[in-house]
Amino acid sequence: MKLKQAIIFSVALLAGQSIFAQNNVVEDFKPSTLNQPGQVYPQVNSQGYARFKINAPEADSVRVSLGLGGRGGTLLTKGTDGFFTGTTEGPMDEGFHYYHLTVEGGIFNDPGTLNYYGSTRWESGIEIPAHDQDFYALKDVPHGNVQQILFPSKSTGTQRRAFVYTPPGYEKNKSEKYPVLYLQHGWGEDETAWSNQGHANLIMDNLIADGKTKPFIIVMTYGMTNELKWGHMKDFKIEPFQTVLVDELIPYVDAHFRTLADKSHRAMGGLSMGGMETHLITLNKPDVFSYYALLSGGIYTPDELKNKSKPKLIFISCGSRERPEGVKNAVIALKDAGYNAVSYVSENTAHEFLTWRRSLHELAPVLFRN
């Protein structure tokens, strides 16, 4: 087949697939679970398609950034009533997604849905129901608490914020002390991400209720990532955040919560750039943490761990649409070198929150086990 004919054929095939997909959309759309109270749109159907309806009578063009294949998202169609409507050209991955509207070239949030901090700004959020969503569902089980704390930071000259999850029973069992996981967000996010987008507290509540994990505290703080422009990750300096975390936050948490304040009961993990921070800090401060977790955040090698105190566990995960072989091979190499290492690959997900929700669900049960 000649090149020109091949290109025409490919374009026709893609167009045909898109039309076929749109013609087979099941009309059982329901409001997204993340909608503002009383708002009907955006909607999601049983296949994972998302549908939008935006009132912009003076606009000529509205596009939703949520889309497939890097094709610029979903272009909405204007009706005579001034409303723009449209449906994604195919089903979305299960789980949480950020998105925004582009109206006449300007970026805006969808007034129909709640906002979540991501991409260094508050973005609209939509939830595509997952087949395994039960593990992060709000259930009738004992619940822990997520509280905001403000702690002094001499190194930055500010009062900084963190969120602390304490497990069910923490307030009643006044004599019991708990291990701590320091859990970091990704680039563009902040200390609200693991509770709001990740449902870390609900994942823990459900695991504890099922007897699948030891109760422990989770501390989530801002990783000082967002001053860095995307594409310049190599310019990031870990030392300022390392000082805040190790020299200021950890002592504050140990002084104000009932923690088991030693290395053997302390873990650090993070998603994406938070994994990169975890990697750097645990290598720089091997006497602070005993459990390391990288969630879509790179790998460890035996060489870089050599001649350092040995961690009790190294957990590495990613989505099946990321680089699963790299994760699996890294863990094989670590095991061969004598390290206790675990890999996890989230099926049919990429660099997104369902990958990290599932990763936390797999990580928690293997933390702080003798």
Structural category is: alpha+beta
**Count of distinct structural domains:** 2
Helical coverage, percent range: 25-40%
Overall morphology: globular
Query: What is the arithmetic mean of pLDDT?
Result: 92
N-to-C CA distance: 63 Å
CATH C-level label of the largest domain: Alpha Beta
CATH names the topology of the largest domain as Rossmann fold
The description of the largest β-sheet is: 8 strands, mixed
Descriptive report:
It is a single chain. This protein folds into 2 domains: 102 residues, Immunoglobulin-like; 232 residues, Rossmann fold (3-Layer(aba) Sandwich), CATH 3.40.50.1820. The protein is 25% helix and 26% strand. It has an 8-stranded mixed beta sheet, with helices on both faces. The N terminus is likely disordered.
Short description:
This is Esterase. This protein is about 25% helix and about 25% strand.
Task: List the topology elements.
Layout: H1 3-23, E1 30-31, E2 43-44, E3 50-55, E4 62-64, E5 74-75, E6 77-78, E7 83-87, E8 95-99, E9 101-103, E10 106-108, E11 115-118, E12 121-128, E13 145-153, E14 158-166, E15 180-184, H2 193-196, H3 200-209, E16 217-221, H4 239-256, E17 266-271, H5 273-284, E18 291-295, H6 302-305, E19 313-319, H7 324-336, E20 341-346, H8 353-363
Parallel strand pairs: 15-16, 15-17, 17-18, 18-19, 19-20
Antiparallel strand pairs: 1-2, 2-3, 3-7, 4-5, 4-9, 6-7, 8-12, 9-10, 11-12, 13-14, 14-16
Protein name: Esterase
InterPro entries: AB_hydrolase_fold, Esterase-like, Mycobacterial_A85_antigen
Signal peptide: 1-21
